[in-house]
Design brief:
This protein is of the alpha/beta class. Helices cover 49% and strands 13% of the residues. Helix 1 runs parallel beside helix 3 and helix 7 crosses helix 8. It is globular and about 65 Å long. The structure holds 5-O-phosphono-beta-D-ribofuranose.
Length: 204
């Protein structure tokens, strides 16, 4: 039983991981952070996209998969110290890209994480419509990539696009997934055309 508060232990662990000489192939490639666990229903899309593309979630024990990701709640306003350490150690911990989501009107986690983690790319997800301006609004010279409100699935696809530049396997997985999506559209087109509108709607 330890008396050390969880927040301090978490910060210490991130620092220790950054200092350790870990095999880059064994560390998570993508970091998912969100301002609150209440963001999870929206941010789950990023998890789902990565799993669809063969990534595994590393919950601290490592994974057998070559490509993995991790998930944390990091509040810019309630735990700025945790946000700072997460972003500052991200590159040394082996992350290649961060997906950061936050809601509310003051959705500062994505943009502050991008500022601190630079030059690591950060993809921001406005969890709500009213968060879009806050996540988008970065001054010249302080880059962030942002998806539309709630589009965390696309944020993960963009993250994998970055990784795919140096990992042909991921490029193939993206192309295969895209091909499947195109086929889905073609199948719907064919079915609608052949069954007609009323029967198509009845089948739905
Ligand atoms: C933001 O405030 C979080 O990203 C969340 O979307 C919102 C509300 O947070 P909780 O009050 O639910 O923790 O920082």
């Amino acid at each position: 039983m330890t008396d050390t508060p969880t927040l301090d232990r978490l910060i210490e662990r991130l620092r220790d991981e950054a200092a350790a000489d870990r095999d880059p192939e064994a560390t998570p490639d993508v970091g998912i952070v969100m301002g609150s666990d209440s963001d999870l229903p929206v941010m789950r899309g990023a998890h789902d996209a990565l799993v669809d593309l063969g990534f595994e979630e590393d919950t601290g024990e490592g994974t057998d998969a070559r490509f993995s990701f991790e998930s944390y709640v990091v509040s810019a306003h309630r735990t700025p110290d945790l946000m700072d350490v997460y972003a500052r150690t991200a590159e040394a911990r082996g992350l290649e890209v961060i997906i950061a989501g936050a809601g509310g009107k003051s959705a500062d986690l994505p943009n502050m994480t991008a500022s601190i983690a630079f030059p690591l790319p950060v993809i921001g997800v406005p969890v709500q419509e009213k968060s879009v301006d806050s996540v988008l609004g970065m001054p010249t010279g302080a880059p962030i990539v942002v998806v539309d409100a709630g589009k965390s699935y696309n944020a993960a696809l963009s993250a994998v696009q970055f990784l795919a530049r140096t990992h042909p396997t991921l490029r193939d997985r993206l192309v295969n997934q895209h091909t499947r999506l195109r086929e889905d559209v073609a199948e719907a087109a064919e079915r609608l055309h052949r069954t007609g509108t009323p029967a198509y709607l009845d089948e739905a």
